[in-house]
Specification:
CATH superfamily: MetI-like
Structural class: mainly alpha
Radius of gyration: 22 Å
Number of helices: 10
Low-confidence stretches: 42-46
CATH class: Mainly Alpha
């Protein structure tokens, strides 16, 4: 296989990330529509006599220790994971992006104080910070999103601040300043469009990491409430059953988490490859 063909194969593999994530988004949309119309009735949360039933035509992915369908819980977990991750990234952008712009543009004591706070948060390991924040805030979709938001905000702040420091010294920005343009115009018309180029890469990589962190919080019992289907909490419940040969309760949530992270990582690599060209 020559270099050109191997490069093409790698590109095709990266592009599968878009297909994977689109599939997850379709699953989320379908599940939301079905739940809104009470298509499943009470089957998603009610108990049944089929405790630890293996995969079959009746239960494609088997059932868990409470007789709940693993396939349906895994599909619902997709909805929860994407909802929390999207909210976390949006919150992180709302905080990190404007603060990075203002800090990089104005500099001075304002920049030093913000950089100190953000660098302090950034220096703390992601999982440790998210666990502490989630423990303080308590369980819940919004609380889990806020916990992840606090973890990722410094990354957006640092990226946008560093880009702003570079762009604000460009000739066209100096020309706009000399011509009498106000600060708002300079920041949002001349600086902002030129500092957000690397954002898509960081967003996809953060989203992939956030899926794993959310799963870790759920595994530790600090994510969403126990009655909400979530991959991490389901893996925690499945851990005790693994030694007895009950493998399906851990396999399917684990695979769902793995493929979502894989798809997001592939998208990040493909976007980086496009921007490099």
């Amino acid at each position: 296989m020559n270099v050109k063909s191997s490069s093409q194969v790698a590109q095709n593999i990266r592009k599968t990330g878009f297909l994977i994530v689109i599939l997850y988004l379709l699953i989320v949309l379908i599940m939301k529509v079905l739940e809104a119309n009470n298509f499943f009735g009470y089957s998603l949360s009610s108990f049944s006599s089929d405790i630890f039933a293996p995969p079959s035509l009746k239960h494609l992915c088997g059932t868990d220790r409470l007789g709940r369908d693993v396939c349906l819980r895994t599909l619902q977990g997709s909805s929860i994971a994407i909802e929390v991750v999207v909210l976390a990234i949006i919150f992180a952008l709302i905080i990190g992006l404007p603060l990075g712009l203002l800090s990089g543009y104005f500099g001075g004591i304002f920049d030093k104080c913000l950089s100190l706070v953000m660098d302090t948060i950034f220096s703390i390991p992601v999982i440790l910070m998210s666990v502490v924040v989630a423990f303080v805030l308590g369980k819940g979709i919004i609380n889990a999103s806020i916990a992840l938001c606090i973890v990722y905000s410094p990354q957006y702040f640092r990226l946008i601040r560093n880009q702003t420091l570079i762009v604000k010294s460009e000739t066209y920005v100096e020309a706009a300043r000399v011509s009498g343009a106000n600060v708002k115009t300079i920041i949002f018309k001349y600086i902002f469009p030129n500092v957000i180029t690397p954002l898509p890469i960081l967003i996809t990589l953060n989203a992939a990491d956030a899926v794993l962190v959310l799963g870790s919080l759920g595994f530790l019992g600090l994510g969403v409430p126990a009655d909400v289907p979530e991959w991490g909490s389901d893996l925690n419940l499945a851990l005790a059953a693994l030694p007895t040969g009950i493998w399906w309760t851990a396999l399917f949530p684990g695979l769902a988490m793995f493929f979502l992270v894989l798809g997001l990582s592939f998208i990040g690599e493909e976007i980086e490859n496009i921007l490099e060209k």
